[in-house]
């Protein structure tokens, strides 16, 4: 029997969605199902950085993966015209996988130029540590989906998780550098800001 995968995310549903958001989930989300793409963002939350990527890389297909449906609904609201509910021109290159990214990676042959993971859930309690997404096993799967000169960019302001990720990278063939990036603030970065300084970023190459 296949070993059951450990769930790396919390809840899938939050507060009740607006009528428009429910409509977008039913009618627009199915039209955005990804097959292959150039840039992947994993766990996009409300999707601020997916939108930033889409605007700044108009020639690339940006795939966002997120199982939290309220986050998916927020992204859909932001990329569609309020009156017509059609996708705004600057966001026509966005595709959405509204589920566990590991399921998507099993079914795509994409070789990404960039894979972003911003503020992955730290699962700080020792008994939850196995739920952390960025294990060596998962990094190896990401590496298989990275183009030869592609990069995996990870940002976190949870220092214990940061050190743990470095230990995981050391169990893979990937190389890592610590970088100072000036990117837009995501919702989680805002939330955590009070407790820590700026996030640290890791850039991984094959
Ligand atoms: C702490 S939030 C950060 C959200 C966003 N990146 C930000 O910075 O605001 C982590 C997100 O990762 C998502 N996540 C966790 N495991 C995932 C998985 N296996 N596939 C896709 N997304 C996942 C969670 O649902 C959650 O929304």
Summary tags:
about 30% helix, 7 helices, single chain, alpha/beta, binds S-adenosylmethionine, about 210 residues, Rossmann fold, 7 strands, globular
What does this protein structure show overall?
The protein is 30% helix and 20% strand. The model has no long low-confidence stretch (mean pLDDT 93). The longest helix has 11 residues, at 69-79. With 206 residues, it is α/β, with parallel strands linked by helices. The chain is globular, with a radius of gyration of 17 Å. Helix 1 (19-27) crosses helix 3. It has helices spanning 19-27, 48-56, 69-79, 101-107, 136-144, 159-169, 187-192, and strands at 39-42, 62-65, 94-97, 112-118, 146-156, 175-179, 200-205. The structure holds S-adenosylmethionine. S-adenosylmethionine binds at residues 8-9, 42-45, 65-68, 71, 100-102, 118-121, 133, 186-189. S-adenosylmethionine (SAM) is lined by residues 8-9, 42-45, 65-68, 71, 100-102, 118-121, 133, 186-189.
Compact description:
The protein is α/β, with parallel strands linked by helices. 30% of the residues lie in helices and 20% in strands.
SSE blueprint:
Elements: H1 19-27, E1 39-42, H2 48-56, E2 62-65, H3 69-79, E3 94-97, H4 101-107, E4 112-118, H5 136-144, E5 146-156, H6 159-169, E6 175-179, H7 187-192, E7 200-205
Parallel strand pairs: 1-2, 1-4, 2-3, 4-5
Antiparallel strand pairs: 5-7, 6-7
The structure holds S-adenosylmethionine.
* Radius of gyration, in angstroms, nearest whole number: 17 Å
CATH architecture of the domain at 111-206: 3-Layer(aba) Sandwich
- Helix/strand class: alpha/beta
Low-confidence stretches: none
- Number of separate strands: 7
> Main β-sheet, in a few words?
7 strands, mixed
Order of helices and strands: HEHEHEHEHEHEHE
């Amino acid at each position: 029997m296949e070993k059951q995968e450990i769930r790396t995310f919390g809840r899938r549903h939050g507060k009740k969605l607006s009528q428009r958001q429910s409509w977008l989930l039913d009618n627009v989300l199915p039209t955005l199902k990804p097959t292959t793409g150039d840039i992947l963002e994993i766990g996009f939350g409300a999707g601020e950085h997916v939108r930033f990527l889409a605007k700044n890389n108009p020639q690339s297909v940006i795939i966002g993966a997120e199982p939290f449906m309220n986050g998916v609904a927020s992204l859909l609201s932001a990329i569609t015209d309020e009156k017509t509910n059609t996708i705004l021109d600057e966001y026509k290159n966005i595709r959405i996988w509204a589920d566990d990214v590991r399921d998507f990676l099993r079914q795509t042959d994409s070789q990404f130029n960039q894979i972003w993971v911003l503020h992955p859930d730290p699962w700080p309690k020792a008994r939850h540590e196995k739920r952390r997404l960025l294990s060596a096993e998962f990094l190896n799967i990401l590496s298989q989906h990275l183009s030869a000169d592609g990069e995996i960019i990870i940002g976190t302001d949870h220092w214990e998780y940061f050190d743990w990720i470095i230990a995981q990278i050391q169990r893979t063939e990937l190389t890592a550098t610590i970088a100072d990036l000036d990117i837009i603030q995501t919702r989680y970065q805002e939330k955590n800001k009070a407790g820590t300084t700026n996030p640290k970023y890791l850039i991984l190459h094959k």
